[in-house]
C-alpha cells in the first residue's frame, strides 16, 4: 500500500523535510486588514514578522476551504496513493481539521483518507507529521500509521514562553491563560500547549527567567527521542538553545522560525520547545 502524508501550513516543518518525505502541505491564509496572503506563497515567515511589526492592526488567520484539501487528496490518488493520512493542527484551535474532514467525505470512494487531530501546534505538529512520513516510507499501512500517531500523541509535549499576550487575546485563542491578563505588563507568560489548547503554566518577571523556565521543562522531561525548538523572530533563540547544553535528545535538535499561522497568535519573540519523550 502506498500511503501519502498531508498536513497544513501550521506545521512549521523545514522545506527540506517537506521535500525529503514528499509531504503535501495545504496552506492557511493570513489577513492584514484588506490584504490576504496564502501562507508560504508571496509572504515568507521573515516577511510576515516585518509586516506585523509595521502594521497598526494584528493579522488574522483563516482555515483552508475544504476544496483545497479535496484537490490535495485527489491529486495524491491520481499519482498512485492508495491511502492518505492527513494530520492537522489541534481541532480545538482551528477549523482546519473540520475542512479536512469535509474534504475526506467529499472524496469518499475515490481515495481512503484518514484525518487525524494531532492535538498539537507548530513544531509539535511537525514532529508528528514527520514521524508519520517516516512510517509511510518504511511501508506501514494507513491503519498502522493511525495507531502510531495515537500512541505518539501522548508523548509529544510543547511549551512556550511568550513576550506578549496581546496576539492571543485579540485572536481569541487565549484559553485558560485568560487569568494572566490581569498581570503587570512586564510579566512574561509561560504556556503549556500539550493538550491542544492554550493553558497557563506560569509567569516570569523577565525574559531571562522565562527562558530558564522553558529550559527547565526540557531538562525535567527525562530522556528524549526528538527535540524541536521554534521561535517568532526571537533575537535570543541562540542563547536559549545554548542554555540547554548538549542536545538532550537521541536525534539532532532542530530550530525553526514559526510561520505566520502560529506567529499571528503567539506574537513576536515567542520561543517554543516541542519534544517526544522516549518510550
Report what the structure shows.
The strands form 3 sheets. The chain has a 6-stranded mixed β-sheet with strand order 10-9-8-13-11-12, sandwiched between helices. Strands 2-1-6-7 form a 4-stranded parallel β-sheet, sandwiched between helices. Strands 4-3-5 form a 3-stranded antiparallel β-sheet, with helices on one face. The protein has helices at 15-20, 45-54, 66-78, 96-106, 122-137, 142-153, 166-171, 207-219, 237-243, 260-266; strands at 3-8, 24-26, 29-32, 35-38, 60-62, 83-88, 112-117, 156-161, 188-192, 199-204, 224-231, 254-257, 271-277. The model has no long low-confidence stretch (mean pLDDT 92). 36% of the residues lie in helices and 24% in strands. Helix 3 (66-78) packs across helix 4 (96-106) and helix 5 packs antiparallel against helix 6. The longest helix has 16 residues, at 122-137. It has 10 helices and 13 strands. The protein is an alpha/beta fold and 279 residues long.
Amino acid at each position: 500500500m502506498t500511503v501519502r502524508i498531508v498536513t497544513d501550513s501550521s506545521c512549521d516543518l523545514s522545506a527540506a523535510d517537506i521535500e525529503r518525505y514528499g509531504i503535501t502541505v495545504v496552506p492557511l491564509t493570513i489577513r492584514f486588514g484588506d490584504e490576504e496572503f496564502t501562507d508560504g506563497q508571496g509572504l515568507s515567515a521573515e516577511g510576515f514578522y516585518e509586516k506585523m511589526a509595521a502594521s497598526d492592526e494584528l493579522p488574522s488567520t483563516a482555515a483552508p476551504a475544504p476544496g483545497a484539501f479535496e484537490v490535495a487528496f485527489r491529486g495524491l490518488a491520481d499519482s498512485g496513493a492508495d491511502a492518505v493520512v492527513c494530520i492537522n493542527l489541534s481541532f480545538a484551535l482551528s477549523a482546519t481539521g473540520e475542512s479536512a474532514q469535509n474534504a475526506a467525505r467529499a472524496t469518499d470512494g475515490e481515495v481512503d483518507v484518514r484525518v487525524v487531530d494531532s492535538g498539537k501546534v507548530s513544531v509539535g505538529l511537525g514532529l508528528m507529521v514527520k514521524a508519520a512520513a517516516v512510517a509511510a516510507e518504511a511501508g506501514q499501512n494507513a491503519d498502522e500509521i493511525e495507531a502510531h500517531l495515537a500512541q505518539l500523541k501522548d508523548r509529544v509535549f510543547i511549551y512556550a514562553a511568550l513576550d506578549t499576550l496581546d496576539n492571543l487575546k485579540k485572536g481569541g485563542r487565549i484559553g485558560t491563560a485568560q487569568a494572566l491578563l490581569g498581570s503587570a505588563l512586564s510579566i512574561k507568560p509561560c504556556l503549556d500547549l500539550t493538550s491542544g489548547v492554550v493553558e497557563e503554566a506560569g509567569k516570569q518577571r523577565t525574559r531571562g527567567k522565562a527562558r530558564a523556565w522553558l529550559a527547565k521543562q526540557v531538562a525535567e522531561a527525562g530522556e528524549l527521542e526528538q527535540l524541536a525548538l521554534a521561535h517568532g523572530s526571537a533575537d535570543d533563540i541562540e542563547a536559549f538553545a545554548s542554555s540547554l547544553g548538549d542536545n538532550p535528545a537521541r536525534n539532532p535538535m532542530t530550530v525553526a522560525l514559526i510561520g505566520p499561522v502560529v506567529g499571528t497568535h503567539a506574537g513576536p519573540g515567542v520561543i517554543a520547545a516541542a519534544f517526544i519523550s522516549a518510550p
